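Problem: given the chain below (142 residues), write out its structure.
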Amino acid sequence: MFIVQCWIEHPVRKLDQTFTYLSEEETSQGCRVLVEFGAKTLTGFVESCEYTSLSQPEIEAEKGMKLKMIREIIDREPLITEELHSLGLWMRDQTLSTAIACFQTMLPAKVKPVSGRKSIVMEKWVRLSSLEVRLTPKQLAA
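Solution.
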């Protein structure tokens, strides 16, 4: 069993801390994971992963709280290197931003941890023929 500390994708400064989860698999600092946070499933970055020989009930008794399991490890290799991790924490202290916001700035848009991302809206374009068509003013404006 592994005890994993994660930065949770949440823009609120009061929640800018690591949260503890459990995992059956080892993961590295800087990898993304899916975790349950309240009633939502959010993306987080692994801060640390520590092996323990204790079972889940023993860990919960030791910590004095109920712990959830990580739902999924998204990345097998870290997206955030040790150097970028240090830079992100420095940026957090210098700019009063959240750690997750600093980590997000270092990643391409495709891999940023944003669970609330809306679906892409597709548009359908229609080409009018060269035939003379009588359109109303509202149709012309559209």
